[in-house]
Write a structure and sequence with these properties.
Elements: H1 2-9, E1 15-20, E2 25-29, E3 37-38, E4 46-49, H2 56-62, E5 65-71, E6 74-79, E7 99-100, H3 115-120, E8 126-130, E9 134-137, H4 145-153, E10 158-161, H5 172-183, E11 193-199, H6 206-214, E12 218-223, H7 243-252, E13 256-258, H8 272-287, E14 293-295, H9 301-309, E15 314-318, H10 320-324, H11 328-331, H12 348-359, E16 365-367, H13 376-379, H14 394-404, H15 411-423, E17 431-435, E18 439-440, E19 445-447, E20 450-452, E21 460-461, E22 464-465
Parallel strand pairs: 9-10, 10-11, 11-12, 12-13, 13-14, 14-15, 15-16
Antiparallel strand pairs: 1-2, 2-4, 3-7, 5-6, 8-17, 17-22, 18-21, 19-20
Helix pairs in contact: 6-7
The structure holds (4S)-2,6-dioxohexahydropyrimidine-4-carboxylic acid and zinc ion.
Length: 466
Amino acid sequence: MAETSSLLRNHTGYRIAGSNPALSAIYIKTPRTAGRFCLCCKISGTLYPTGMTVSQEQISDESRVTSYENRGSLLDTRYSRLAPARNTLRSSAHTHGQTFSTRPTPQLRYTMPPEKFRQGDAMTDTLTIARPDDWHLHFRDGDLLAETVPATANVFGRAIVMPNLTPPVNTVAQADEYRQRILAQVPAGVTFEPLMVLYLTDTTPVEEVERAAKSDFVHAFKLYPAGATTNSDSGVTDPGKITHLYAAMEKHDVPLLVHGEVTDADIDIFDREKVFIDRYLNDIRRQFPGLRIVFEHVTTSEGVHFVREASELTAATVTPQHLLMNRNDLLVGGVRPHNYCLPILKRRQHQESIQQAVLEGHGRFFLGTDSAPHARNKKEAACGCAGCYSARAALPLYASFLEQHNALDKLEGFASHFGADFYRLPRHTDTVTLVRKPWSVPEVIDAAGEAMVPFYAGQQLPWSLG
Ligand code: DOR
Ligand code: ZN
């Protein structure tokens, strides 16, 4: 550690900003002194695991980063293989992108992947992985299915279909009908399996759990605390009071999917996830050790910690928005309604905990987009709806994030293996191919006659679907 520190301290133009025990790492970033910063400054930091001896070579490798282009909070890193190995990290030129005059919020870059990927990145033009699945998705219903089903089915082989319709999908019989409506919209020649989920209420009968276990298309129950999010009014009013249902799920081995937020008016919106863990989830985990639990759309370091510390029967889904963004992306420079989702984006340290779990290839953190369309006028409104419609861009977004962190080798596990393993479903044997070809996310999508603004609308991503 001492050796690492002194090596980095000698590093021209940069200083050690301190070690972060939560991440077991030492972190270097640009000075915070200048008055105006390009948003691209956000990625000038690098995280080195504690105890890792950082060689001159590794630092030199970083000097190959020659330009950063601002893509909102996703940055396209270009490498110059010809750049001489200099032992300095260089900040990018401020010739583009939005500027703001507050202190910069450097986004971390992690340097943990195997050497082969550090070498390979710049030359990889296609990337073929086993077909991925989306373990958290909102298709909605009716005419919207003509947009949402192909958008997902063209990429993903299966999706966990969230049941928060109006009225919600409470029974196996309702799930069967909804499933038929979804299947009717799968494009010809495409194989896609919707994995149905039932919506828990205060009055869900234990027999429904038994019926779900017997069916071959219902794969889980979703716990929405009443009032926590879109169409959750008939959710569970006290998650501590349906222990008989958790017991039945444990007995029949049906996973419990959790929207982990309390809804009390006196709890700050940024604390709702942590309080839910303290108040309910720790107890549920302890009382039902054989119950499979998915902590949906994890947003906090406490959530990440909960999953890490729990047994193999506990996992989390990770959305593109919580991986790529923090609350600055929602609020700095004006309110960005299309980045508004629930649970709300948190501060950067929480984002970094999620990134860390994904970048290290932790097998219980897997892809779940939480793609949740709302019409443009419902998002850009005095009281806007929560949800990001990310289905079309999700895989290129995850790939771009991982590449930015030299961790493209983690994509297949995250997107195609870990979730299937957790749900005890076979991994797909067919593949999808991503191509390094810039692709611009549409500015707006016409869906069921209404305008919808997708996540990352109008922004160019370095990867597209082949
Ligand atoms: O942002 C969100 N939108 N979070 C949720 O939990 C629900 C979703 C939706 O259905 O709109
Ligand atoms: Zn959701």
